[in-house]
Design a protein that fits this description.
Strand content: under 5%
Shape: rod-shaped
Number of helices: 4
Number of strands: 2
Structural class: mainly alpha
Largest sheet: 2 strands, antiparallel
Distance between the termini: 76 Å
Radius of gyration: 33 Å
Order of helices and strands: EEHHHH
């Protein structure tokens, strides 16, 4: 994580990218799992595509409600990635037996869940660390402001003292000049 003009920027592998990121992998797995699930449940092709699209859009809407910060392009690509993995998985499902599909569905869903859990956990750790760093930054900034004010005060006092010294020197010079001119 590093500081930028816009705040702290996460640099871990689970950070949200502008386009595609590591979170695209669970979207691919979700697309395959949804395809296998809908195929096993005997949905027709058009209705399966519509349902899958709506599921992916609703998931992205959930991310907005949950205040998961992503760019608009990343949200769009998450839906595209889900549909891109859904389409071939659904269309090629007819080449597999029912039991192979159920087994693949279970394995992919578990892999998706585990990957998503670990990503979520790492994101939570990063959020806690980010909050800690932000708090520390605010504290350090307050200390720096306090030190700056102290230095300003010292400089003001020193400036005042220097004015007095300069005034005394000028008075001494004037006095010496007046004594010299006598």
């Amino acid at each position: 994580m590093h500081r930028s003009p816009y705040g702290f920027v996460r640099t871990d592998i689970w950070r949200e990218g502008d386009y595609l990121d590591l979170w695209s992998v669970p979207h691919v797995l979700s697309g395959i799992a949804v395809a296998l699930g809908l195929y096993v449940l005997n949905f027709r092709t058009i209705s399966a595509f519509i349902i899958a699209f709506l599921v992916f859009v609703m998931y992205e809407m959930f991310e907005v409600i949950a205040k998961i910060e992503e760019t608009r392009m990343n949200r769009t690509l998450d839906i595209v990635v889900g549909m891109a993995s859904f389409a071939p998985a659904f269309l090629f499902s007819s080449y597999f037996t029912y039991y192979e599909l159920v087994l693949a569905f279970a394995g992919i869903t578990i892999a998706d869940g585990v990957l998503s859990f670990f990503g979520w956990r790492e994101s939570q750790k990063a959020a806690v660390w980010e909050a800690k760093m932000h708090h520390e930054f605010i504290e350090q900034r307050a200390k720096m402001k306090e030190r700056r004010e102290k230095l300003k005060g010292r400089f003001r006092k020193d400036r005042y003292r220097m004015k007095k010294v300069v005034q005394r020197i000028e008075q001494g010079i004037e006095q010496a000049e007046s004594n010299f001119s006598k």
